[in-house]
Amino acid sequence: xxxxxxxLDRAYPRSPRGALKIVRALxxxxxxxxxxxxSAHEAYTALAGLxxxxxxxxxxxxxxxxxxxxxWLFWPLADIFNSVIAALFLLVVCLFAxxxxxxxxxxxxxxxGLILLVLCVVDAVLLCKKISLDRPRGRNAPAx
Length: 144
Description:
Layout: H1 16-37, H2 42-63, H3 66-69, H4 75-100, H5 104-130
Helix pairs in contact: 1-2, 1-5, 2-4, 4-5
Protein backbone atom coordinates (compact mmCIF):
# COMPACT_ATOMS: atom_id res chain seq x y z
CA UNK A 1 0.00 0.00 0.00
CA UNK A 2 2.66 2.46 -1.03
CA UNK A 3 0.06 4.77 -2.64
CA UNK A 4 -1.89 5.35 0.58
CA UNK A 5 -1.32 8.92 1.67
CA UNK A 6 -3.18 9.91 4.81
CA UNK A 7 -4.39 13.46 5.14
CA LEU A 8 -4.93 15.02 8.56
CA ASP A 9 -8.07 17.12 9.00
CA ARG A 10 -6.74 19.81 11.34
CA ALA A 11 -10.13 21.52 11.62
CA TYR A 12 -11.98 18.42 12.86
CA PRO A 13 -10.76 18.45 16.51
CA ARG A 14 -11.85 22.11 16.80
CA SER A 15 -15.29 21.47 15.34
CA PRO A 16 -18.21 20.78 17.69
CA ARG A 17 -18.46 17.16 16.51
CA GLY A 18 -14.72 16.62 16.83
CA ALA A 19 -14.55 18.13 20.31
CA LEU A 20 -17.53 16.04 21.38
CA LYS A 21 -15.92 12.88 20.01
CA ILE A 22 -12.70 13.63 21.93
CA VAL A 23 -14.61 14.28 25.17
CA ARG A 24 -16.63 11.12 24.60
CA ALA A 25 -13.45 9.06 24.16
CA LEU A 26 -11.91 10.55 27.32
CA UNK A 27 -15.02 9.97 29.45
CA UNK A 28 -15.25 6.40 28.13
CA UNK A 29 -11.59 5.83 29.03
CA UNK A 30 -12.05 7.18 32.57
CA UNK A 31 -15.20 5.04 32.95
CA UNK A 32 -13.21 2.00 31.81
CA UNK A 33 -10.41 2.79 34.27
CA UNK A 34 -12.90 3.18 37.14
CA UNK A 35 -14.42 -0.22 36.40
CA UNK A 36 -11.00 -1.86 36.05
CA UNK A 37 -9.65 -0.31 39.26
CA UNK A 38 -12.71 -1.36 41.24
CA SER A 39 -12.63 -4.96 39.97
CA ALA A 40 -16.19 -4.49 38.74
CA HIS A 41 -18.18 -7.09 36.86
CA GLU A 42 -16.67 -8.00 33.49
CA ALA A 43 -19.72 -6.71 31.61
CA TYR A 44 -19.17 -3.20 32.95
CA THR A 45 -15.51 -3.25 32.04
CA ALA A 46 -16.11 -4.79 28.61
CA LEU A 47 -18.76 -2.22 27.67
CA ALA A 48 -16.62 0.74 28.73
CA GLY A 49 -13.57 -0.72 26.97
CA LEU A 50 -15.46 -1.36 23.74
CA UNK A 51 -16.98 2.11 23.81
CA UNK A 52 -13.52 3.62 24.28
CA UNK A 53 -12.08 1.64 21.38
CA UNK A 54 -14.95 2.24 18.97
CA UNK A 55 -15.06 5.96 19.75
CA UNK A 56 -11.31 6.29 19.19
CA UNK A 57 -11.64 4.42 15.88
CA UNK A 58 -14.41 6.77 14.68
CA UNK A 59 -12.30 9.74 15.83
CA UNK A 60 -9.36 8.47 13.79
CA UNK A 61 -11.65 7.74 10.84
CA UNK A 62 -12.78 11.36 10.65
CA UNK A 63 -9.45 12.88 11.72
CA UNK A 64 -7.51 11.05 8.98
CA UNK A 65 -10.35 11.55 6.46
CA UNK A 66 -10.64 7.83 5.93
CA UNK A 67 -14.40 8.19 5.54
CA UNK A 68 -13.75 9.94 2.21
CA UNK A 69 -11.32 7.20 1.12
CA UNK A 70 -13.83 4.44 1.90
CA UNK A 71 -17.09 5.72 0.37
CA TRP A 72 -18.62 2.24 0.14
CA LEU A 73 -20.11 2.72 3.64
CA PHE A 74 -22.13 5.70 4.79
CA TRP A 75 -19.95 6.35 7.85
CA PRO A 76 -22.09 9.04 9.52
CA LEU A 77 -25.02 6.61 9.62
CA ALA A 78 -22.77 3.91 11.10
CA ASP A 79 -21.65 6.46 13.69
CA ILE A 80 -25.29 7.23 14.56
CA PHE A 81 -26.06 3.53 14.98
CA ASN A 82 -23.00 3.16 17.20
CA SER A 83 -24.08 6.10 19.36
CA VAL A 84 -27.66 4.89 19.76
CA ILE A 85 -26.72 1.28 20.53
CA ALA A 86 -23.98 2.41 22.94
CA ALA A 87 -26.49 4.68 24.71
CA LEU A 88 -28.94 1.79 25.15
CA PHE A 89 -26.26 -0.55 26.53
CA LEU A 90 -24.86 2.18 28.77
CA LEU A 91 -28.31 2.90 30.19
CA VAL A 92 -28.82 -0.70 31.29
CA VAL A 93 -25.29 -1.49 32.46
CA CYS A 94 -24.62 1.79 34.26
CA LEU A 95 -27.95 1.73 36.05
CA PHE A 96 -27.06 -1.75 37.30
CA ALA A 97 -23.63 -0.50 38.36
CA UNK A 98 -25.19 2.37 40.31
CA UNK A 99 -27.90 0.22 41.91
CA UNK A 100 -25.53 -2.60 42.90
CA UNK A 101 -22.64 -0.19 43.76
CA UNK A 102 -20.26 -2.91 44.91
CA UNK A 103 -17.74 -0.21 45.84
CA UNK A 104 -17.03 3.46 45.18
CA UNK A 105 -15.16 2.71 41.94
CA UNK A 106 -18.15 0.88 40.50
CA UNK A 107 -20.42 3.73 41.57
CA UNK A 108 -18.09 6.30 39.98
CA UNK A 109 -17.91 4.23 36.79
CA UNK A 110 -21.70 3.99 36.70
CA UNK A 111 -22.14 7.75 37.10
CA UNK A 112 -19.50 8.45 34.44
CA GLY A 113 -21.22 5.89 32.23
CA LEU A 114 -24.47 7.84 32.51
CA ILE A 115 -22.60 11.01 31.55
CA LEU A 116 -21.20 9.06 28.60
CA LEU A 117 -24.75 8.04 27.70
CA VAL A 118 -25.73 11.73 27.47
CA LEU A 119 -22.68 12.40 25.29
CA CYS A 120 -23.67 9.52 22.99
CA VAL A 121 -27.18 10.93 22.59
CA VAL A 122 -25.85 14.44 21.91
CA ASP A 123 -23.40 13.00 19.36
CA ALA A 124 -26.21 11.14 17.57
CA VAL A 125 -28.45 14.23 17.53
CA LEU A 126 -25.68 16.49 16.19
CA LEU A 127 -24.85 14.00 13.48
CA CYS A 128 -28.52 13.56 12.52
CA LYS A 129 -28.77 17.32 12.06
CA LYS A 130 -25.71 17.32 9.78
CA ILE A 131 -26.70 14.55 7.39
CA SER A 132 -29.55 14.36 4.98
CA LEU A 133 -30.38 11.24 3.05
CA ASP A 134 -31.78 13.18 0.08
CA ARG A 135 -28.56 15.16 -0.46
CA PRO A 136 -25.82 13.64 -2.60
CA ARG A 137 -22.75 12.44 -0.70
CA GLY A 138 -19.46 13.82 -1.75
CA ARG A 139 -15.85 13.90 -0.69
CA ASN A 140 -16.21 17.54 0.33
CA ALA A 141 -18.93 16.90 2.91
CA PRO A 142 -17.18 15.62 6.05
CA ALA A 143 -19.22 14.52 9.05
CA UNK A 144 -18.44 17.48 11.32
